[in-house]
Specification:
Strand content: 5-15%
Distance between the termini: 28 Å
Helix content: 55-70%
Structural class: alpha/beta
Order of helices and strands: EHHEHHEEHHEHEHHH
Strand order of the largest sheet: 3-4-2-1-5-6
Largest sheet: 6 strands, parallel
């Protein structure tokens, strides 16, 4: 089970690369929380078109090859409010952390602070966009230097997303090994 945060979805949607998530669907059910859905709806109401692409991937029932919606139970929501106060994170982030922990899920986020709190709270696997790109390289979905460079450049231009130099070196090294 993989729980995906808003930031990964929005970044990939803005560059028309939501298909990079397909690699996850082979072995996992993927979810967003109801709070992430609400956050996406807020962006849609504000006029952001990237949300429409994400909506095409959503399902309100548990279906393979779609992103399903997972709502917290009242005890999980209570725990999320506790984390919010403790760590000064958004309720959306805290819901993701609590549900990932209670469901023993992989958390896919690019929010560094959220990732640190998730690890501190006992989530075993916290992955980011770099990890997702690496998986796509290893599985042959990103085949060459030009394609990877284009993805990185699009992220920079359309989402103001920057990788560290060491992350870039690692990504391009994966390509050279294949």
């Amino acid at each position: 089970m993989i729980l995906i945060d808003t930031c990964i979805l929005s970044s990939l949607s803005k560059i028309d690369k939501l298909g990079l998530l397909n690699i996850l669907f082979h072995n996992h059910f993927c979810y967003i929380t109801s709070s992430v859905l609400k956050e996406l709806n807020t962006n849609k109401i504000a006029g952001f078109k990237f949300v429409e692409k994400i909506e095409e991937m959503l399902s309100f029932t548990e279906v393979k090859n779609k992103i399903c919606i997972l709502s917290p139970e009242s005890s999980e929501l209570e725990e999320a409010y506790g984390l919010k106060d403790q760590y000064n994170l958004s309720l959306v982030d805290c819901e993701c952390i609590v549900l990932a922990k209670s469901k023993n899920a992989i958390l896919l986020t690019d929010d560094t602070n959220m990732g640190k709190v998730a690890l501190k709270e006992g989530i075993q696997k916290v992955y980011d966009l770099k990890t997702l790109l690496e998986a796509n390289i290893i599985n042959g979905k990103i085949n060459n230097y030009k394609e990877l460079k284009e993805i990185i450049e699009c992220l920079k231009q359309r989402d103001y997303y920057l990788f560290s130099e060491s992350d870039l070196d690692e990504l391009f090294e994966y390509l050279s090994e294949i």
